[in-house]
Amino acid sequence: MTSLSTLLAEGLRPGVYRWPSAPGVADVRRDAAAAGFGFVLLDTAEIHDKTGFLDLCATAFDLPRWFGRNWDALADSLSDRSTGAPEVVLWTGLLHLLEHDHDTVDVALQIFAEDTTNSGQLRVLIAESETPDLLSSLPVL
Question: Where do the Barstar (barnase inhibitor) domain residues begin and end (predicted)?
């Protein structure tokens, strides 16, 4: 297993990645901080729908109170954060949300991918050992 500190030191490019052998949250948080990155945990193990996901994003990303809780607002809010420190986003529990709301996961992945291309700030790491079709095209760490 490659450590996050090694991946970041080697210049992990912004993007959305599958990381089936991801270590625990505390280790990822520590390695991100040591490399000068912010850390965001998206744990969707108890989330069932778009509303819950957007509420989680508002809290996890510390979005402003005026965050509109819709897809456009999420995309805009993430791009507004592009002047800050780069961030590592660890997404756990994705398969649970995928079982309940495939469309929410699909749109969220599109927004994250677009943001990584436009702002270059996010490294979204999906900590799942299974690979559903929706994730099969993502690079693996």
Answer: 39-116
In the structure, what pLDDT confidence band is assigned to residue 2 with cuts at 50, 70 and 90? low
The pTM score is 0.94
Angle of helix 102-118 relative to helix 71-80, nearest 10 degrees? 30
Please tell me the distance from the alpha carbon of residue 54 to that of residue 69, in angstroms, as a whole number. 6
Q: In whole angstroms, what is the distance from residue 9 CA to residue 3 CA?
A: 10
Please state the φ and ψ torsions of residue 69, each to the nearest 5 degrees. Answer: 55, 45
Amino acid, res. 32: A
Contact 5, 141 (CB under 8 A): no
Assign 67 to helix, strand or coil: coil
